[in-house]
């Protein structure tokens, strides 16, 4: 079931895991629902991920408060795709 925040953001393959209000701004914690990712260099799709880091993205203000999105950034394993050892 999608939440109200999921409906408001309307981002494909993404759900809002939680949020926090800190020092006058709102931070939404997002989770990616798709299993893998496409390589930005060769466009190869893989579910083999090396690591996931978080990035903070400034979004439009809402209700007079700045809004930030904490988005997972997936990094695929280049070794796995190219067959390097």
TrEMBL record:
Species this chain originates from: Floridaenema evergladense BLCC-F167
Superkingdom: Bacteria
Protein name: Transposase family protein
Cross-referenced Pfam families: Zn_ribbon_ISL3 (PF14690)
InterPro entries for the chain: Transposase_Znf (IPR029261)
Transposase IS204/IS1001/IS1096/IS1165 zinc-finger domain boundaries: 37-74
């Amino acid at each position: 079931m999608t939440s109200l925040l999921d409906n408001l953001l309307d981002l494909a393959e993404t759900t809002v895991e939680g949020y926090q209000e800190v020092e006058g701004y709102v931070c939404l914690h997002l989770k990616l629902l798709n299993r893998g990712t496409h390589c930005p260099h060769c466009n190869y799709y893989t579910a083999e991920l090396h690591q996931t880091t978080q990035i903070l993205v400034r979004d439009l203000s809402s209700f007079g408060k700045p809004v930030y999105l904490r988005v997972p950034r997936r990094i695929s394993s280049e070794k796995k795709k190219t067959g390097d050892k």
